[in-house]
Amino acid sequence: MDDHSGSREGALAPPFTLYELIHELRSGERPLLEFLEELEIRFAEWEPRVQAFVPEEEGFQRLQRDARLLLDRYPEPVTRPPLFGVPVGVKDIFHVAGIPTHAGSRLPAEMFQGPEAAVVTALKKAGALVLGKTVTTEFAYFAPGPTRNPHHLDHTPGGSSSGSAAAVAAGLCPLALGTQTIGSIVRPAAFCGVVGFKPSYDRISREGVIPLSPSLDHVGFFTPEVTGAHRAAALICAEWQPAQGESAPALGVPHGPYLERASEEGLAHFHDVCDRLAQAGVVVKPVPAMPDFSEIVARHNCLMSAEAASVHEVWFARFDHLYHAKTAALLTKGEMAPAAAVQAAREGRARLRQELMNLMDEHQIDLWIAPSAPGPAPSGLESTGDPIMNLPWTQSGLPAVNVPAGTNEAGLPLGVQLVGRWYEDEALLQWTERIESAIREG
Fold this sequence. Notes:
Blueprint: H1 18-27, H2 32-50, H3 59-73, E1 87-91, H4 118-125, E2 129-134, H5 162-169, E3 175-180, H6 186-192, E4 195-198, E5 218-223, H7 226-236, E6 250-255, H8 264-279, E7 283-288, H9 293-311, H10 313-319, H11 325-335, H12 339-362, E8 367-371, H13 391-396, E9 400-407, E10 413-419, H14 425-440
Parallel strand pairs: 1-2, 1-3, 6-7, 6-8
Antiparallel strand pairs: 3-5, 4-5, 4-9, 8-10, 9-10
């Protein structure tokens, strides 16, 4: 799809941060029902352009009913739960009570129904309101849905959590759930210019979520800013403990074949960000890493395809004609994967994690820093872009967060990802908050 002068949306910033909205809705400074009326107006303006949500008849009527019940239950601000009235987008592979799950596919919706996802229930208990289901690629793989990049409608928003990233970027909600099996949170977050947080593997429950590859699937979310992501993570990540310490992190740049997969534009921008951080007093050092990157990629693809084939075995046998060609090719490949290779790939996750952690100890770094994607969002909607820059951090299960880091000359967002230690998500987000402003400059 070619660029058109009329499709450029220019600089785009969500009208509220999650942190601000939490305070304003809980205190009553921003009355909930009035806020939802304003949101409906914005939704009517932006949703037809970006198509971030699965269409739902009378969705705002449902939202208003839920909001009134919430107000009746918590009339006094002092009693209100932490996410009181916050509208949340939910990727359409999460089950939500009363809303069908389609998983971005043409298969009958009744095939997928089940108990509400544990993380959705947790958000509701915290006072959040489900704004609606956000568009996903088919079964969270590569076949794209209709969603467009809010910064430039002729460019992909990324995948597979395309709708969630675009919804937050367009200011339709300040919090949206997604999943990542290769790069489906960090990459669309970078393309859409928002924060995307992929916690350590299984730190947020996968219960009630249609899987793609259970050994690799991560549940995470999108927000406009890191402070809001920190607040949300503390509510839905298991056994959250506030991080201690005030020092700035030392950052490691993973030199080698991995970093070489970034585009010329993406790599130049990444080095600019690293220089900016160094000028702000942050320690940034090169660390030779992942010399076997091609083997890491092959291992990931083998495991993902085999597990996806197992998940879809019954559905694919019955409805293969309704699957997109990209998804069908993945499942067919997975059916032929040798069992020994799959087991070796599964065991390789912990080995990679330990190798990366050992390098962090050896070089005395607190976080890895890397490009969130090879470059800006590609033109066209046929592809969701390359997730290669996210793959090793997903395979290892280490926590990662995309931080928006400016735009290119065409106005398309670029981002960098910071990666922390295994199950030290608290420290990752605390450190990211401290250096977010230096990353965003420029």
